[in-house]
Amino acid sequence: MATAHVVAPRLNTLFSVLGKDTKNKVGYMSFEGLTFAHSNYTRPSEEGFLDLQAANFNVDVLPDPSRGNWEKLNSNKYLLWRPDAAFRVENAHHFLVQGNVFSQIAATGLDFVSGTNDDMIQGNAFFEIGAAGIMLGKFYQDSTTEIHIAYNPSDKDEISTRDTVKNNLVTNVTNEHQGAVGIGAGYPRYVVIEHNEVSYTYYSGISIGFGWTKNQTAMTNNHVNWNEIHHIARLLCDSGPIYTLSNQGTGSEIQHNYIHDNGTSKWADYWNVPIYLDEGSSGFTVKENVFKNSPAGVGQNQAGQNTLQQSNNYYSDDVVNNAGIEKSFRYIRDIKEIPLADFNGAMEQTPYKARLTLPGIVQLEDYDMGGQSVSFYDKDFVNEGGSYREDGVDIVQVDSADASKGYAIGYTQAGEWLEYSVNVVIASKFVFRASVADGLEGGSIRLFIDGKAVTDTVAVPQTEDWNTYTLMDGETSEIEKGDHVLRVQFTGSYVNLDWIQFALTKDELGTSGIRNVPTYSMNFLPNTGRSLKVFNASGRLVATLGNSAGLSVTETLKQAGLAKGIYLVRGMGKTLRVQLK
User: Fold this and answer.
1) Strands across the sheet with 169-171, in order?
2) Cis status of the peptide bond prior to 44, with omega within 30 of 0
3) Which of 285, 145, 123 is nearest to 196 (CA)?
4) How much is the average pLDDT of 495-514?
């Protein structure tokens, strides 16, 4: 081990592109000649993992009385989610991902999640991957929608449309998540999956469609043509080199694919089908596919209307010679390894302004430079606060009406953390005082020095709202003199944390800088023409309303159609907590 070159993955997602929404997408970007490698996937060890199909996994099971008295135990009703991906794209158009290598990835390689259109994924090599090589489009509306409900959103810009997956090598994937597939597409429309080579998977090769339904879905005109597919379903069954589900509209095709060297594993207790039109599959024209050293033909299981012009013994030199990766991209077949990781240019963790001193005050917004999983860890991809610094950490103004009152860390989730380079001038235990706000119960933090806990979990008191700050005291264990890294970890969600003051004695702790914005009832509103901002219980803005003279705040919210629950309403320099029943 003294001479080993070791890479310990820290990130589940190496690179993420997220457009604002389906009407404000990011576009015209090119990613070429890159290597994406060494991503992690911690969900199975942290939360468990129950596989379902095509790289999707269960997050819950619903009762299914139609299957007897077993309720959930014998249910066929599921709520799903998709695994993390090394490269994740959402709400994007006219992207080119070409000539890249994806390898040594714990979950999915490349995932165009939703809201993508007119993109080209071409000439990439995917190998040594835990789950799917490529995922495309939504497989269900969201994690609260039962999977057999057809996905067909009113917002058509959410559907992955006119994306092309072409000339990619996808081999030796599904190694950890064995129910994944080489290339998986949920409910796309006008997708082109052609001239790819897909091989050595434990389940299906190319899978398109989801939902097990003959009802109308988002799909139409999907083409799976001219692919070379071999050594598929080496472990699992009820799969195929090409596998489909549900109503695919009109104009969909499965043609001119070269399928060879496939069989059924000795562990399988059910069939595998060369071209498998499974439940609800309809709208396909299937013809002129070649089978060699492989079962031949088309299997239909409760499928809809398809046009089958496929002969089991069809053979064509043109298909055999020209299916799979085209000549100009065949060099990717020779890529067997990735470069050794070189960390000489890695981002170093350095103080944001200057090394902080203990005893002293730590302003939480001044966390170290270094980035995600180096100097901070933030669970989502969106900067909800949008203040002070431009990265993934959610920094909020303490009082949106008065920027001079400073900043705090907000929108926190359990497990997130921030780090600070500090110099401890004297070895000692320390007392500390923090300025905090928490509109809900259950918030808490814990402090670490150089990775070692120096406090127990410290509960954060509930305050009137997230703009009403109070003081919270605690004490550390002994901390040695010298330079250290202080980590502030959020062990409970929805805590706003402004600053922490460290001192040797309680007498040295003050209240300097505490942000306390009083709250009181706005009762009945005058018609001032000014708007009311309405936040939900997690502190997120859900509505901006005009006030109506003579109406109470509660009535104003009810007339706006807001659901039952607890809200924070700001207006006219005041904040009010309102519960709608």
Assistant:
1) 35-39, 101-105, 125-129, 169-171, 197-199, 228-230, 258-260, 290-292
2) no
3) 123
4) 81
Residue whose token pair is 């902080």: 356
C-alpha dihedral sign at 260, 263, 265, 266: negative
Per-residue pLDDT of 335-388, as tens digits, reads 999 988 877 777 789 999 999 999 999 999 999 999 988 999 998 767 788 889
Read off the pLDDT of residues 194-216 as tens digits, 9 standing for 90 and up.
999 999 999 999 999 999 999 99
Alpha carbons 562 and 569: distance in angstroms, whole number: 12
Q: How is residue 222 written in tokens?
A: 């999907």
Distance CA 58, CA 543 (A): 33
- Residue type for 282, please? S
The per-residue DSSP string of 173-210 comes to --SSSTT--SEEESS-BS-EEES-EEE--SS-SEEE--
Three-state SS across 454-507?
CCCCEECCCCCCCCECEEEEEECCCECCEEEEEEEEEEECCCEEEEEEEECCHH
Supply 464's token pair: 């009137």
Tokens of residue 157, six digits: 């810009």
The CATH number of the structural domain formed by 29-334 is 2.160.20
Superfamily of domain 356-508 in CATH is Galactose-binding domain-like (2.60.120.260)
Model confidence band, residue 567 (pLDDT cutoffs 50, 70, 90): confident
Token code pair at residue 507: 């007498």
* pLDDT per position as a tens digit, 26-42: 999 999 999 999 999 99
Across all residues in the chain, what is the average pLDDT?
Answer: 90
d(CA 496, CA 472): 12
Q: Among residues 91, 19, 81, which one has the least CA distance to residue 49? A: 81
The domain ranges of the chain are 29-334, 356-508, 531-580
pLDDT recorded at residue 554: 80
| Statement: residue 248 has pLDDT above 80 | yes
